[in-house]
Amino acid sequence: MSQQYGYYHSVETFGTVDGRGIRYVLFLAGCSLGCKFCHNPDTWVRGEKTITAEQIMADIKKYRRYYEASGGGITLSGGEPLLQPEFVRSVFSSCREAGIHTTLDTAGNVPEANLTGALAHTDAVLFSVKAVDPEKHRWLTGADNRRILANLNKAAMSVPVIVRYVIIPGITNDREDMKALAELVATLPGKVSVELLPYHTFGRKKWAQLGRAYLLDGVPDAGPQDMVRAQTFLEEYDVKVLYETKAG
Q: Do 208 and 214 form a contact (C-beta atoms < 8 A)?
């Protein structure tokens, strides 16, 4: 087992929203995007906190019965985990040897080689698509999305993929946005579903603590009606949507 260090932000030992079942979620530090709606801008900078694959495996052992009983495992998230590709491969290969389900949570704005090396040891991918329209994507994130979409296609050729898409009222949720997302999903190999996530402003305090101006000031949180509307649009195009509407 490699002694490769990874730079990380935090650990969640009983995660329930970043992949199937109960999961050990390691949030790695550093990001290659600058999303205006990010609720964890404190993960953008690498910092000095480090962890090894050995430490992670020892930590997982404490809770492994819960992960196995729920069909869970480990998720590497961020920030952007694929900015540390050697560490991702080290952790996931160790987990594969131990029979632990692995999920990669990525936004895909990395060289293709970073993704390819990780996929060999990955059971599932949560792939964040910020916007399909290239101009809107650049405005939201500061980056072009051509490489991202190419990496999404690469991931979908290899493992089960869930596309994660944040519904931002008035920005990413009109009919044209939904149509573009549905058409993108239709081009991907394999069966790809979409998880709709509601935009919220919980991270505004973190932006203030970091001395940054919150860039979507005045944009409201996505409400149930926004989520139902987006889900309905996508289902019109036969996209499998994982967002569940709740009565009341």
A: yes
Q: How far apart are CA 246 and CA 248, in angstroms?
A: 6
Residue 246 lies in a domain: no
Long-range contacts at 223-230 (CB < 8 A, ≥ 24 apart): 223/169, 223/198, 226/167, 226/169, 226/173, 226/198, 227/167, 227/196, 227/198, 229/173, 230/167, 230/173, 230/178, 230/196
Average pLDDT on 139-168 reads: 97
Q: Is residue 242 part of a domain?
A: no
Q: State the residue for tokens 């931002």.
A: 168
Q: What is the CATH number of the domain that holds 52?
A: 3.20.20.70
Between CA 90 and CA 58, with CA 4 as vertex, the angle to 5 degrees is 70
Q: For residue 241, is it within any domain?
A: no
Q: How far apart are CA 150 and CA 106, in angstroms?
A: 13
121 touches 98 (CB < 8 A): no
In a domain, 245, yes or no: no
Quick one: tokens of 23? Answer: 């999961």
Helical segments of 101-203, H only: 112-119, 134-141, 146-156, 175-187
- pLDDT tens-digit readout, 48-77: 999 999 999 999 999 999 999 999 999 999
The partner residues of 12 in beta bridges, in order of sequence, read 25
Cα dist. 211→101, 133, 203 in Å?
38, 30, 13
Q: How many domains does the chain have?
A: 1
Indicate if the pLDDT at residue 244 is higher than 90.
no
Domain that holds residue 129: 5-236
